[in-house]
Design a protein that fits this description.
- The chain is an alpha+beta fold.
- 23% of the residues lie in helices and 35% in strands.
- The chain is globular and about 75 Å long.
Length: 754
């Protein structure tokens, strides 16, 4: 059969074939166009996602007005606001803090407000009060699920209620339901914590903002097989199963005035004649009622909650008390808190051992701004302190990792110079894949037991998968000792403290470039001097439950801190250990202990921490840890991951049928952080609180940290990507869109057939 009719005219079969091909090409072009448009649309997803609509933070022209706005169906309305009052009394070795949060609802709606906030990692939270009008409602400790049920029922019944929950030992959530139009509700929590000591300096740190966390997506399942399960167990696919509860919305400081104004008052009663009292990150006024007391307030009255408050004090004669012993009687037991600082070994007696020092520096997006400057300055200082007998290596990480040398190299001028250039060129970008970097640092291929192996880890700790890091340290620490250096205005102190504890090391904070030399000098005093090891504690006449259960090594200028529950306050406490190769012993008579406050709470909190550590180290099962924690929490009325505080005003207030709207209150970006390094370009601005029904459980989440910049090195490793790269998505979307348009254009150039 001919393929043409009338010479040049194609046959019907050929036309049908051509038509079929063209139809196929058009369908393909349409599909490609649809995929391209979808990818391009997805590339504009904001850095914070929600299960509700996304809104700009304010109207044009109002961005710096200081007001925070909802986007509603009818336009914009004012959003609930938060004010914070911090009042702390330091009594010798302990501090009692009262945090008052004022939730004000300027809208015409009934609101539920949710606010994520930080507390010190070692704090014992034991009190909740809610003030509604002229009524004061005292909260009660309940098991977490029971407290949640009570709160939700009160919310449905139109009763004003408050719920305090622990997300991490240093991250808490307050939920307040049924705040009426134009109303202010006060929620007050209280906690107890020990004062920190380092050498002749005592300190208090009040965290004021939760830094946005990098929450890696699951890569490997972790499986838990429990006894009696007949071989069946549970697999956890997500290293951060509560990522939505630790990721509050953060405001872009370039487009929004600071929120959450905070007032701070510290009443310092040191118990000795005071010398220098210093606030490191805030301007303060200091009053001196007497030689042992100071009253510290903010010079500006209020400040935005965007950085930690740090206060330090020293004795006037620079002679620091080396021993402290305090007691408290509660119920039928006595509680003891002991501080003992071992003597420094004379330099002539020191025999420095050769060391392998592995430096790890975090150059991820959250380290942008001033944090990377502090980290680089700290590491450069550390490189300059290396001795000729030392060996070292440098690891940098974001969501990729570079190991500078194949193995530890001598600390000679050539290698130190190479490392100095490498560190100086680092920039902060990318995700925070901390676990692979810790694995690399703890990988020990040396068989030279005469070398001391030390890991110095510089980071802000802004991750949500802390437990994965702790398990890595437990499994791989070997002979290594881990020294954590917390960088920036709002470091994750829980991660720093626990990692150093599990790694048998120490930790320090560096909050500004000005602190680098002083704090790093103190750190190297610990690295270069022998630790006090083999520590034991025994009571001569009393039966005691001592915490920590396994007494850690103590480094130069650090006190050994012990808490104990005693059946009677008699006899003495004897502490023994070794400083280098020399034995050391100190005996404390219990009868001379001074009265202390809140010691039972501190003992219980430290026992809870012991149970968590034992669980991580697989010394007890998860069920055993949970039972121990729950028993301690209920007995001592403490908030833990298994218990919460709940307060309910029994008077129904919200009218029947009146809707309740949810407001997740935003936080400031920590001072010194670079918003674009964390969240991407400003078109990816996180949303302001969006008006929606309080029954909605969608929460805002941290999204992609930005692309890494990898210094040239043959030892660079690309880690599994756990965050979407915005620029890559946009390029892919644009490319697919162009292909779709080209396909359509080609289709249009085909002749029409009749």
């Amino acid at each position: 059969m001919n393929d043409t009719i009338d010479g040049d005219m194609p046959s019907r079969s050929v036309l049908r074939q051509i038509g079929t091909v063209l139809l196929f090409l058009l369908v393909q072009a349409a599909a490609v166009l649809l995929v391209g448009l979808t990818a391009l649309f997805l590339s504009f997803t904001p850095g914070w996602s929600a299960e509700g609509p996304i809104a700009p933070l304010s109207k044009p022209g109002d961005a710096r007005s200081g007001s925070l706005l909802f986007k509603t169906d009818d336009g914009y309305s004012d959003a609930p606001r938060l004010g914070i009052d911090v009042d702390i009394t330091v009594s010798g070795p302990t501090a009692r803090a009262r945090i008052t949060q004022l939730f004000r609802n300027p809208t015409d709606h009934w609101m539920e407000a949710i606010y994520v906030y930080p507390l010190p990692a070692g704090s014992a939270v034991d009190t909740l009060k809610m003030v509604v009008g002229d009524r004061v409602v005292v909260g009660n400790i309940k098991e977490r699920e029971q407290a949640k049920v009570i709160y939700e029922q009160a919310k449905r019944d139109g009763k004003t209620a408050a719920l305090t929950e622990q997300e991490r030992p240093n991250i808490f959530t307050n939920s307040v339901a049924n705040i009426g139009p134009g109303e202010t509700v006060l929620v007050q929590i209280e906690y107890q914590e020990p004062v920190a000591q380092n050498g002749n300096e005592f300190s208090l740190r009040v965290p004021l903002v939760v830094g946005p966390r990098y929450n890696p997506a699951p890569i490997v399942q972790s499986v838990e097989l429990r006894p009696g399960g007949n071989g069946w167990g549970a697999a956890s696919n997500d290293p951060v199963p509560d990522r939505d509860r630790i990721s509050p919305p953060a405001l872009d400081p370039a487009e929004n005035a600071p929120v959450n104004p905070t007032r701070i008052t510290v009443r310092l009663q040191a118990g000795f004649v005071l010398g220098e009292v210093k606030s490191h990150h805030h301007q303060v006024k200091i009053e001196s009622p007497d030689a042992t007391t100071r009253v510290v307030t903010l010079a500006d009255g209020v400040v935005p909650a965007d950085r930690d408050f740090e206060l330090t004090w020293k004795p006037s004669d620079e002679t620091t008390p080396s021993v402290g012993l305090f007691r408290e009687h509660v119920g039928d037991a006595d509680y003891l808190l002991a501080f003992v600082t071992p003597p420094a070994v004379a330099p002539a007696a020191q025999q420095p051992l050769p060391r392998d020092v592995i430096f790890v520096i975090d150059n991820s997006g959250s380290m942008g701004g001033t944090s990377i400057q502090q980290a680089k300055a700290s590491l450069l200082y550390a490189l300059g302190r290396l001795q000729p007998t030392d060996r070292f290596n440098v690891i940098r990480f974001d969501d990729t990792m570079t190991v500078l040398f194949p193995s530890a190299v001598p600390a000679d001028a050539e290698h130190v110079g190479s490392a100095t250039g490498f560190v100086s060129g680092l920039e902060a970008r990318g995700g925070t894949e901390m676990v692979p970097a810790m694995r690399a640092a703890l990988t020990d291929e040396s068989s030279e037991a005469d070398h001391v192996r030390q890991v110095v880890f510089l980071t802000d700790g802004a991750i949500g998968n802390e437990q994965q890091l702790f398990e890595t340290i437990t499994a791989m620490r070997g002979r290594s000792r881990i020294f954590m250096v917390g960088i920036g205005s709002a470091p994750n102190t829980y991660l720093m403290t626990r990692a150093a504890e599990l790694g048998r090391g120490a930790f320090t904070h560096i909050g500004s470039v000005e602190q680098v030399e002083e704090r790093m000098r103190g750190l190297f005093a610990k690295l270069e001097n022998p630790a006090v090891t083999g520590l034991t504690a025994s009571f001569s006449d009393a039966s005691a439950d001592v915490t920590p259960a396994i007494i850690p090594d103590v480094y130069r200028d650090e006190p050994l801190v012990l808490a104990a529950k005693l059946d009677k306050l008699e006899g003495s406490l004897r502490i023994k250990g070794r400083i280098g190769d020399r034995p050391w012993t100190v005996t404390l008579p219990l009868a001379n202990a001074a009265e202390g406050k809140g010691l039972s709470k501190l003992w219980a909190r430290r026992k809870i921490s012991d149970a968590e550590v034992a669980r991580t180290m697989r010394q007890i099962t998860p069920d055993e840890a949970d039972k121990a924690i729950l028993k301690l929490a209920l007995e001592h009325q403490l908030v833990t991951r298994l218990t919460s505080l709940v307060a309910v005003d029994q008077t129904p207030r919200r009218p029947a049928g009146e809707p309740l709207k949810l407001s997740e209150l935003p936080i400031n970006l920590p001072a010194g952080w670079d918003f674009e390094k964390v969240f991407g370009e400003r078109m990816r601005t996180p949303a302001a609180p969006v008006e929606r029904r309080a029954q909605d459980e969608g929460r805002l989440r941290v999204a992609a940290l930005k692309r890494p910049v990898v210094p040239p090195s043959p030892n660079t490793i690309t880690l599994p990507k756990t965050a979407t790269d915005a620029e890559l998505s946009m390029m892919l979307g644009a490319g697919l869109l162009m292909l779709g348009l080209v396909g359509c254009a080609m289709g249009r150039r085909r002749p029409a057939f009749r």
